[in-house]
Amino acid sequence: MEWIDRRLRTGVKIAGFLTVLAFLISVSQSAYAQESAGPTAAEAMFTVNNTWMLVAAFLVFIMHLGFATVESGLTRAKNTTNILFKNTSVVAIGLLTYAIIGFNLMYPGTFSLGEFFGFAGFGISSPEGAAGLINYADGHYTYWTDFIFQAMFAATCATIVSGAVAERIKLSSFLVFTVLFVSFVYTIAGSWKWGGGWLNTMGFYDFAGSTLVHSVGGWGALVGAIILGPRLGKYTKEGVMPIPGHSMPLATIGVFMLWLGWFGFNGGSVLSADPGPVSLVFVTTSLAAAAGVIGAMVVSWIVFKKPDLSMILNGCLAGLVGITAGADVTTPFTSIIIGLVAGCIVVASVIFVDKIIKVDDPVGAVSVHLVCGIWGTLAVGIFSTNPEHTFFTQLIGVAAYGVFTVVCSIILFLGIKVTMGLRVSEEEEMAGLDLGEHGMTAYPDFQQVAESGGSTMYMSSGGSSKPGSKVLMEGELES
What we know:
Elements: H1 2-37, H2 41-73, H3 80-106, H4 143-164, H5 171-191, H6 198-202, H7 210-228, E1 235-236, E2 239-240, H8 248-267, H9 275-304, H10 309-323, H11 332-356, H12 365-383, H13 391-420, H14 426-431, H15 433-438, E3 446-451, E4 454-459, E5 470-471
Antiparallel strand pairs: 1-2, 3-4, 4-5
Helix pairs in contact: 2-3, 2-4, 2-8, 3-4, 3-5, 4-5, 4-7, 5-13, 7-12, 7-13, 8-9, 8-10, 9-10, 9-11, 10-11, 10-12, 11-12, 12-13
């Protein structure tokens, strides 16, 4: 009996061991099956969405090259280095200030002063683990992707101001303005809608920033141009004198770069890679830009009796700015209407700003970004497929951003003017900011000689087979 009992106990042990072994094999097979099956559907979509958001971020980044070439092409050669320096600095300032303070001002989470102001603290810090990854933003993108995408928009806003104050503002003064404008004005204003503030609660809608980015920058540009005053030789007893830019090829390249970047600007604002909304936004954005070109072409040809390249370039940008507020809530047909009206408006606005109220805006920034930004925002209340979007609510948003930005811009520009000066000397302006501010030129093979209304460029002995030969690069007439 004892022998039988030992055999039974041994059998039980063997049976237990085999059961445990079978369980371990089953678990390992299940884990292997899951691993070989790849990520879950949610994980795969998270990767796709996040990748698209990062692609959109670098498309917005490349827009800064477009702004730099448009601004330098539509202004005189003697200021090219200065303009390129500003546009490069703006990106750096925008990214750093947005990281230090701007992101948490724009997206405070909770507001401490009604729904008007909130601050989540200095610096940026992703939540630990999945909270900053797949559990962030409903699994669409990570915390870091959210930051870098929004930071690119912040830098864009200040770049708009650069064009309107070009060729006569002190570099140091502009950089100080940029730091304060991007750090506080743009971010606090943005929190009212995109950060969940009072305008968002009211139902105001601005999909990708016709007002939050473009009109805010446009208001700053208008205030800056007025306080600075016009460039020397622009308004004389003989009337309004045109000051042509030095390179239409550069300006044209810049517009195409901006059009390309706008696919990220608007397409990325879907905040996911959802094929339906993203593809619709691509279509409405493109059609509005094309319609803006045609609208500006027709109106400028009628008014000036000649087809004007600079006008259709601004018409393209006008259509893009106009559709930005409602690219996801308009049909392809209504996007054409919005872009066409924007193209017509921008020509009328350029004439009005330049000849009627006599504000010197070298690149048409006020007309493109402010006027057409307002039009695009109001157009949401007219054409949106969402019945909750109303014209009156959109008008309140436009007015609120206008008042806030104008007041802040006046304080900033006047404060800088009083403390450190705002405008370069007449001698520097005539010689060009490249020499006055930087001690270098963008085109060293040419020598620039100041004349009334601008400068004439002479080929240096090292850049021509005929030393001293004269090349009229800026549309100037030889005296």
